[in-house]
Design a protein that fits this description.
Strand content: 5-15%
Low-confidence stretches: 1-28, 253-266, 388-393
Number of domains: 2
Largest sheet: 3 strands, antiparallel
Structural class: mainly alpha
Distance between the termini: 56 Å
Helix content: 40-55%
Order of helices and strands: HHHHHHHHHHEHHHEHHHEEHHEEH
Number of helices: 19
Shape: elongated
Strand order of the largest sheet: 1-5-6
Number of strands: 6
Radius of gyration: 29 Å
Bound molecules: zinc ion
Length: 498
């Protein structure tokens, strides 16, 4: 099977191939040159492997013979070694470690809990030039919320620093040339420096890594990441979300000393909160249709509609449409209002919140599902969190306030974006309004749970990639997908009852 028996592919061969390595190989206790991980704090599995490959002059096919790693030429070695538990376990075994070190798992580096496999799509090997030259790479350098190596202060790169060609980490290197640029021959890993690196960790790395990992662990214990449906790219969203948290980390002392009391302008009555949760429950449906707007959110949503209507250029809304947009706020059309010279549009007339028998209803087909599903997910987090207590009433008033306020902000933004998107069909002038140009976004959220209560939320919006479609078409598509889900659910239910 193997043309190279294990004994031959071991470092002996490497030592022969690189005479200058022989004395070093003879000195180390590990079967590998560079196999002592203790000198490389929290190194990544890929970093460990890349260094072993270089210092022991291994060929791609040696990965199986030496470490039991079965790989294809097209595999991105850095991606495989980050996400494959089986490959990490094999490498750990070959290095005589009891288990794969926790620092090889990406989850150890995340300052939140999440059920999603993040950062994989798309995955790009990212490194610090100074660290990698010595054969050191850590998953810290892959985290999108860091732009620079914390101890060298160099920009983290995904390309060759000399010619900007993409870094290739496929399983197809020539001996002694893994991590060497294929375009300009620049060597990202300098063998001689890696040898020195075997006895000396990058200055300052140890302390920073220990502090970072402790912080991430502490945050993970109390924060949950809520990922939107069909996220368009996680890197930018996570970078924005976590950067603000890291700023908080640096000023933590100030935060701790100034004891923060929960502050909210108006404490919702417990009954009001209960009623609001019940109404938001409709957002769980496959195609929710209309939301009976919780009382505390009515004004905010009505204001979204009227604010936009009042900003539109003259002759864009008909008189009746304008009145529909303003009625929720109880205002009349402004003096000098110039109505559009067209028939009333059915699709425009259904956009503002409608009042029926003293209740406000919001048409959800003009809100992108990733917005209202985020709101319902947040309610779930609060409720599940209090499940031990058995029912809604156990959500504390502060917790209810935090959740409902966040839901309101999410719904208002989703509604504002949806309004502009759908209006743009009748009012193309919106595209020339810089601040109100139609665009759609999706919310990414971190929820903080302290002492059993959801105590804070942090939301960032990232653009939804509409491709060649217009924003209104993307909303139509989302509604069509909801409709299909609804039909499937009905069929499944019917079958269950047969
Ligand atoms: Zn560095
Ligand atoms: Zn290059």
């Amino acid at each position: 099977m193997n043309d190279t028996p294990n004994t031959v592919s071991l470092p002996l061969l490497a030592a022969e191939a690189r005479e200058n390595l022989t004395p070093f190989a003879a000195m180390t206790e590990s079967p590998w040159v560079g196999g002592d991980l203790s000198v490389m704090p929290a190194a990544s599995a890929f970093g460990v492997l890349a260094r072993l490959v270089r210092l022991n002059a291994l060929k791609p096919k040696d990965l199986f013979a030496s470490f039991g790693l079965r790989l294809r030429r097209a595999d991105d070695l850095s991606e495989v070694m980050t996400f494959s538990h089986a490959r990490q376990a094999a490498l750990a075994k070959a290095l005589r470690l009891p288990d794969a070190p926790p620092e090889w798992a990406l989850s150890t580096w995340l300052p939140f809990r999440t059920g999603s496999e993040l950062l994989r799509d798309p995955w790009k090997f990212r490194y610090c030039q100074m660290c990698l030259a010595t054969g050191y790479h850590t998953l810290l350098h892959q985290l999108p919320w860091l732009d620079h190596c914390p101890w060298h202060h160099c920009v983290l790169r995904t390309q060759c620093p000399l010619c900007a060609a993409p870094t290739t980490v496929r399983v197809e290197w020539l001996v002694d040339a893994n991590l060497r640029c294929k375009s300009c021959d620049h060597d990202l890993l300098v063998t001689e420096r890696a040898m020195v690196g075997s006895v000396e960790a990058p200055n300052g790395a140890q302390t920073f890594l220990e502090e970072y990992l402790a912080w991430a662990k502490e945050r993970r214990a109390k924060t949950i990441l809520l990922v939107p449906d069909k996220p368009s790219g996680s890197h930018a969203a996570l970078s924005k979300l976590v950067k603000t948290q890291m700023i908080e980390m640096r000023s933590r002392r100030r935060f701790d000393s100034a004891k923060r009391e929960p502050q909210y302008a108006h404490k919702p009555l417990a009954l009001d909160a209960l009623e609001s949760f019940r109404r938001l429950d409709v957002l769980h449906q496959d195609r929710p249709g209309f939301l009976q707007v919780p009382r505390m959110m009515c004004n905010a949503l009505a204001a979204v509609a009227s604010n936009l209507a009042l900003k539109l250029p003259p002759r864009t809304l008909t008189g009746r449409e304008m009145r529909l947009f303003l009625v929720g706020m109880g205002i009349e059309e402004p003096k000098g209002f110039q109505p559009a010279d067209r028939r009333q549009s059915q699709s425009v007339a259904m956009l503002p919140p409608t009042n029926v028998a003293g209740q406000q209803y919001l048409n959800l087909t003009c809100v992108h599902p990733s917005a209202y599903r985020a709101a319902s997910r947040l309610v779930d987090v609060a409720l599940n969190n209090s499940l031990a207590m058995g029912f809604h009433g156990q959500v504390s008033p502060h917790e209810a306030h935090v959740v409902l306020l966040a839901c309101q902000q999410i719904l208002c933004r989703g509604y504002a974006e949806g309004l502009r998107a759908i209006l743009s069909r009748d009012i193309p002038q919106l595209y020339s309004m810089p601040r109100d140009r139609p665009h759609l976004g999706q919310p990414w959220m971190i929820a903080t749970i302290e002492n059993g209560n959801l105590s804070a939320t942090h939301v960032v919006w990232c653009p939804i990639d509409c491709g060649k479609l217009g924003e209104a078409d993307v909303l139509d598509q989302a509604d069509a997908a909801n409709r299909r889900r609804q039909i499937t659910s009905v069929r499944l239910n019917n079958r269950r009852h047969l």
